[in-house]
């Protein structure tokens, strides 16, 4: 029995060992394929002038940075950058690159470049952006031995698109894209263009509204930092016929992304919470023609809050542009202005007019703040119909200074009363509206602009 | 079934396999692509690569990896490549200060002598015992747990890694010495003793005094008085041996004399007089070599002063006076103490460690000297003389010129 067990496999071996018709999975050996992969990757990276935009992520705690790489066939690469770790100054520096075989086909930047390897350098992070520990009185964190912990060697992942190379950080595993640029692209202007898109968000507007394809809304914060936070808004679910209440604390999720030339991309798709605690993925936005950011595939649109929301935000003061009055406002303003000068002298002419906030008794209230010389007149009002682009302002009271001059100068009071009215409001920009245009609901030709301070 | 049967069965399978192999199977030349050893003439680094081949690979069989490959380093550390310019300069200096030192010594020992028509210039020695790979890394290898950084590594007698290349400052000889030159000789010391052991006596000289876990918190004066040339030497015997060699070769006469002066002192912490003081070995302490009584009538109150430092911002060992005066030579220390003595009575800290640190350091150097002579046929002191001279006279522009003098490549047109 034992003997026959030995003989059987030997026979099978003898029979099968001479099959010349086996299919070849690969035409070349593994080593030859690796070498071919290297050659093809080098050819792709250096083709047509070799200029690429890298969307680089070092870690999960900071935003991504766009740097430009001009690959030369001679093994050198000119890197251009203007990120904050080099004081936002545009700089270029030459160093070396190669494509090697190591855990697949690997793109390596194997000589130090101060613009790029700063993200891999284990030295302590110092300077104005030094990380601090909020739990220890913002004491600087010693990052010696760690630094940003970014990769400088990347596995080249297969891609059929000649204009895109997908890289995988060899040590940290971040997906990083190289996107091909026209070799005539001016590196400095290109990076400045990205800055300009990011700077759009460096305004006083800290909140943006994301609407999904079902019309549900989310508040997005900290966009300008590149590390955005989302939380859902409460809504009425008509199917379930009930109000779904959201929690801006427990349902907040956040992730890092990168401002690119055509929009904003997250380091990796991340989960946003619905008000009902279910989750969905978000990956990137692109600029739309109307100036909003959209994701067509997922039916997402990111915009500024409505004029009503902006107007109702206590942190904002809106200064009325006195050169923008039209219709009834223009006539009443001229009349009031002249009457004030006549009654109080040129030194006490009508000064700045603001929509602001102050305490009226025990509650914070809207007010129209007007200045007559050094005199501060406060006329408080409440709001109704404050939604979307509609506002109804209803006068409630005045401080003693306002009351005195409202009585003494009827033209002034008549002018002010125009503001306690029903309005239609329009943002001047769909993303970061610095101005709201107000027009009377019953007389659209009469209106004015209010500018965010 | 016994082992013999297994062998027989294996043999049988082999026979059948041989007899059934297809006669028309073509094994082919090699499965690996043929890679040229010559630098690419179109490469940005062609001249330097050619220089490396001609001066390291072809002569000593050394692969000089100045373009960092992270697989060559410990992946647990966060490291970055060296800048091309610094890597090139350090490569040139490695040859000049390390390989050429031994070459010069061999030529001095064997003037005019040849073997097979070739001068006896140490090529065979370096080819046989030198590292196979020299790897440069731009950053130090930090250990955040201990607050230390690795400046060099020798692995298995085959590879030497030099770190911190991006901080190289050619205008600061002390920095160059501290970070690179000493490291080269330290790591070569490891390679040599990994190949041929040093005498066991060396290990026994400081038995019980090595401290692998908290050496970094100890002052140079204190460890010198225990017989160690540096705090790192006090970590373990093999590091002690490599440090003995490297410091002997690279330290200036003044620096070496100052360390030996430290070795002859008694050192104490302020806590030493406090019987309740808790002795925590992990805590960094300050050691002093002198004291005085602020109030001579009160013998219970001593004021300690005179500290030691392995390196200050000038990268030299120094003694620090009571008002942070820095002294780099024995003469400066003695003059300082003399000035102090004119104002008040100062006392030497009693040397209670029952250890003649100076004698130990000198004994260790003597063991290394004999080991070099008897094991390698090399003169420890003459090697030091050559290193000392070369450290002070290297001309980086001339060394760089040796790269630039490489003829431009002839690029073939297809």
Explained architecture:
The complex is a heterodimer of chains A (453) and B (414). Chain A is built from seven helices and 29 strands. Chain A has helices spanning 2-16, 30-46, 187-199, 307-311, 327-344, 400-408, 410-417, and strands at residues 51-56, 65-71, 76-81, 91-96, 98-101, 105-108, 132-133, 139-140, 153-157, 164-169, 175-180, 207-211, 217-221, 227-232, 235-237, 242-244, 253-260, 263-273, 279-287, 293-295, 300-303, 318-320, 350-360, 363-372, 375-387, 390-398, 422-427, 435-440, 443-452. Chain A is 19% helix and 40% strand. Mean pLDDT of chain A is 88; it is low at 1-10 and 12-17. The longest helix of chain A has 18 residues, at 327-344. In chain A, strand 19 (279-287) and strand 20 (293-295) form a beta hairpin. By secondary structure, chain A is of the alpha+beta class. In chain B, 44% of the residues lie in helices and 10% in strands. Chain B has a four-stranded mixed β-sheet. Chain B has a three-stranded antiparallel β-sheet with strand order 10-9-14, covered by helices on one side. Chain B has a three-stranded antiparallel β-sheet with strand order 11-12-13. The chains are: A alpha+beta (453), B alpha+beta (414). The interface between A and B is large, with 42 and 41 residues.
Strand order, main sheet of chain A: write it out.
Answer: 4-3-2-1-11-10-9-6-5
SSE-based structural type of chain A: alpha+beta
N-to-C terminal Cα separation of chain B, in Å?
A: 65 Å
Class per helix and strand makeup of chain B? alpha+beta
Overall 3D shape of chain B: elongated
Number of helices of chain B: 13
Secondary structure layout plus pairing:
The complex is a heterodimer of chains A (453) and B (414).
Chain A: H1 2-16, H2 30-46, E1 51-56, E2 65-71, E3 76-81, E4 91-96, E5 98-101, E6 105-108, E7 132-133, E8 139-140, E9 153-157, E10 164-169, E11 175-180, H3 187-199, E12 207-211, E13 217-221, E14 227-232, E15 235-237, E16 242-244, E17 253-260, E18 263-273, E19 279-287, E20 293-295, E21 300-303, H4 307-311, E22 318-320, H5 327-344, E23 350-360, E24 363-372, E25 375-387, E26 390-398, H6 400-408, H7 410-417, E27 422-427, E28 435-440, E29 443-452
Antiparallel strand pairs in A: 1-2, 1-11, 2-3, 3-4, 5-6, 6-9, 7-8, 9-10, 10-11, 12-13, 12-21, 13-14, 14-17, 15-16, 17-18, 18-19, 19-20, 20-21, 22-23, 22-29, 23-24, 24-25, 25-26, 26-27, 27-28, 28-29
Helix pairs in contact in A: 5-7, 6-7
Chain B: H1 3-20, H2 46-60, E1 63-65, H3 84-109, E2 114-115, E3 118-119, H4 123-129, E4 133-136, E5 141-143, E6 148-150, E7 152-155, E8 159-162, H5 173-195, H6 200-205, H7 220-225, H8 237-250, H9 253-263, E9 290-292, E10 303-305, E11 307-309, E12 318-320, E13 326-327, H10 330-343, E14 346-348, H11 357-376, H12 380-393, H13 396-404
Parallel strand pairs in B: 1-4, 4-8
Antiparallel strand pairs in B: 2-3, 5-6, 7-8, 9-10, 9-14, 11-12, 12-13
